[in-house]
Amino acid sequence: MKFSEFTYERPDVASLKTEFEEAVKVFKDASSADEQNEAMKKVVALRNSFESKARLAKIRHTINTEDVYYKEEQAFMDENLPVYQGMVTAFHEALVQSPYKDELERKWGGQLFRLAELKVKTYSEDVLEDLKQENKLSSEYVKVMASAKIEFDGKELNLAQLSPYVQSADRETRKAASKAANAFLSSNQEKFDSIYDELVHLRTGIAKKLGYNNFTELAYDRMGRTDYNAADVKVFREQVKEIIVPLCTTLKKRQQKRIGINEFKFYDEPFSFTTGNPKPQGDAEWIVNQSKQVFSGLSQETGAFFNYMAEDELMDLESKSGKAPGGYCTYLQDYTAPFIFTNFNGSDNDVRVLLHEIGHAFQMYTSRGYEVPEYQFPTLEACEIHSMSMEFLTYPWMEKLFGKDTEKYLYSHLTGAVEFIPYGVAVDEFQHFVYDNPDATPTERRSKWRELEKTYLPHRDYDGLEYLENGGFWHRQGHIFRSPFYYIDYTLAQICALQFWKRAGENSERAWEDYFALCQKGGSLPFTKLVEEAGLISPFEKGCVASVVGEVEKFIATVDEEQFVKA
């Protein structure tokens, strides 16, 4: 069945609540573990049905935020997802209190129960209205970002459509495009600060009502982090500060020399090569057709999977007016179908994002056999291993997409992966500051962000642009608004993905086997256990960052950058 044939009908939440409560009662009243296992099937069916509808509404709303019908359906979901969350929490309470818990755990494994315990801790009817408001505020941020209509080059562009100009080989063009993007963001500074200020105080209030000391503790539990804490993350951030930041400073100096400028400004960062940034050699349709060869080359499984995604319309890739910014992958349980949403803009990022989201989608599809939703995909930092590693595992086939620009793409992708990490941990440390100091003013928050930029991104020069000099850059990072404390997950996964890159260079078949096995495990284990099972070093282990960065430095030393410079 093609995506265009998927049907949406607004769920009757009152009826769902009645059915859900009846199913949970049957589970509680069961007289054996076998009966409870049977009763779980009804609960799972109800969960899959509602979540499929919620995700389908989100997909169609983000594809066209101006569609009145799906705008109303998204508002309905914002209002009712917390109600649904309460239903699931009631089931989780029954699960962790089961007199047959030991027998159930032998069947399902311990991770299901650890996650259920956290779900119980992080929800209460007392915060239901607060959760609804949190969803509304997050959606308000998306609306503001999607409202961008920027006059540039005689066209009306959104932020994604402006990206090719930001990467232009002409310095004045990329400077003007960067300023145009930031003018839009600056004009909405008060809205961003107001939405975020309300979110911070709302989330802090929710945490207090649930018995937490602060929202940071609640956020870690919300994220299902059963096996590490803020102290572990700090150990990782310190490794980044000590080992990766100096390397990134060196890389930026090399970039400055390579593009031949005396002063390296923020609008120069997206431009890496005087011969032009690497670009895929065709449009979106061409990229999809070429990618069929890429994934067929990687493995039989990925070849068949990508053909399925393309043929069943399970990807919406091109940027267009009214489309929400960003990219994501989600899963529609009732159709056992992943769905990929991106905003292609003609840059090399089109390929990177497609490979990234296919990594997510492949894992979701590979794990579809798990009966409980908790195991269909793991906690988010482990999810990102699948996506980021896919970007590296497909390296041998990049010539099919980049042609003569292949070496340029591989170099920029690898160095870009490393350069991203300090920014990612800056986002994380910023959020720790925010929720440790919930009464900080918007000005104090922006000041803290600028301070962290100077620590983790010491090369960054905003050329006197007031909005950015005053710490406004973080407004564009949607995760800070919509998914608090998520962003560190990308950096943890990046270190794991770089280990897969290293291993693929040593033994590509073994690296693929370990990756495929990791995908098959879904969310049945916590992050550090999945890392161990895949034969990777935990990012929280001292020496992990150094071990992989050393390999990156060796690779960079072999690259003759003269090939990237015009004669």
Automatic annotation (TrEMBL):
Keyword Protease: yes
Pfam families membership: Peptidase_M3
Cofactor dependency: Zn(2+)
Cited InterPro entries: Pept_M3A_M3B, Pept_M3A_M3B_dom, Pept_M3B_oligopep-rel
Domain of life: Bacteria
Family classification: Belongs to the peptidase M3 family.
Name of this chain's protein: M3 family oligoendopeptidase
Species lineage: Bacteria, Bacillati, Bacillota, Bacilli, Bacillales
